[in-house]
Design brief:
The protein has 155 residues and is an alpha+beta fold. The protein is built from 4 helices and 7 strands.
Length: 155
């Protein structure tokens, strides 16, 4: 995986070239650069990257509103997948949510993304419902998932 332990840190503008390239590689309907710039400038958005040696191996964005978090994006570069990077990143996000005083974290995921659903359920996310025709390119419903945040149920 790399010589050193992964470091999770706040995303910086200098990460955006790699992050947007990863976004285009991994998602059929990728977020534009402007969305990431907005997240970097926003008070409610908390974007993070996983740095492994000199590479950005993944990223996640958590929006915070009152006492609820919304995990808007989480991704790991293909060459670092299946190496527990997503688990480490999700664990970090959930600890950050707890430290921020959040009561819950919600997210949306494509029902066809079974590896992501498996990961979320392994962290205690439960299925809340379905939003019809939420995703474009290709059109697909989305599964809404939620995790209650307490100190005892974090990984």
């Amino acid at each position: 995986m790399g010589k050193n332990k992964p470091i999770i840190r706040p995303m910086a503008e200098g990460d955006l070239e790699v992050v947007t390239a990863m976004e285009k590689d991994l998602f059929s309907d990728p977020w534009p650069l402007s969305a990431f710039l907005d997240d970097l400038a926003s008070d409610y958005s908390h974007p993070f990257v996983v740095q492994l040696d000199n590479d950005v191996a993944g990223y996640a964005i958590l929006w915070i509103g009152v006492d609820e978090g919304h995990l808007t994006n989480i991704a790991v570069d293909r060459k670092y997948q299946r190496k527990s990077i997503a688990k480490q990143l999700l664990s970090y996000i959930l600890r950050f949510a707890a430290e921020s005083g959040l009561a819950q974290v919600i997210l949306e995921v494509r029902p066809s993304n079974t590896p992501a659903i498996f990961l979320y359920e392994s962290f205690g996310f439960t299925r809340l419902g379905v939003r019809k025709r939420y995703y474009r390119n290709p059109v697909e419903d989305c599964l809404v998932m939620k995790k209650e945040i307490t100190g005892s149920n974090l990984r």
